[in-house]
Amino acid sequence: MTASIVFCIFFPVMSDYCNICDTRRPEGGTNHLVLNGGELWIEFCEPCGKSETLQNPETGETVTVQALFDRSKG
Ligand SMILES: [Zn+2]
């Protein structure tokens, strides 16, 4: 098993809260990124997605939350 990050997307109906900047109902809404097979959930607004980064502990790769989200869609 070499896959280091497994992620998928949920589209919540009710929740609308950015976990990064602690803003409820941020402008533009939020997206959900689920990492490590569901162990780590991040709900984020658009500005945070572009500024907040995550590091893959296995590869050392640092990517923005938004980039991971975009990657998970494609
Ligand atoms: Zn935010």
What this model shows, in words?
This protein has 74 residues and is an alpha+beta fold. It has one domain (1-53). It contains 2 helices and 6 strands, in the order E-E-E-E-H-E-E-H. It has helices at residues 46-51, 65-73, and strands at 17-18, 23-24, 30-35, 40-45, 53-55, 62-64. It has a two-stranded antiparallel sheet with strand order 1-2. A two-stranded antiparallel sheet has the order 3-4. Strands 5-6 form a two-stranded antiparallel ribbon.
Strand arrangement within the widest β-sheet reads: 1-2
Characterize the overall form.
globular
Helix percentage range: 10-25%
Strand count, sense and closure of the main sheet?
2 strands, antiparallel
CA-CA gap between termini: 22 Å
- Sequence stretches where pLDDT stays below 50 over 5 or more residues: 1-9
Note the beta-strand portion: 25-35%
Radius of gyration: 12 Å
Topology:
Layout: E1 17-18, E2 23-24, E3 30-35, E4 40-45, H1 46-51, E5 53-55, E6 62-64, H2 65-73
Antiparallel strand pairs: 1-2, 3-4, 5-6
Could you give a quick summary of the protein structure above?
By secondary structure, the chain is an alpha+beta fold. The protein is built from 2 helices and 6 strands.
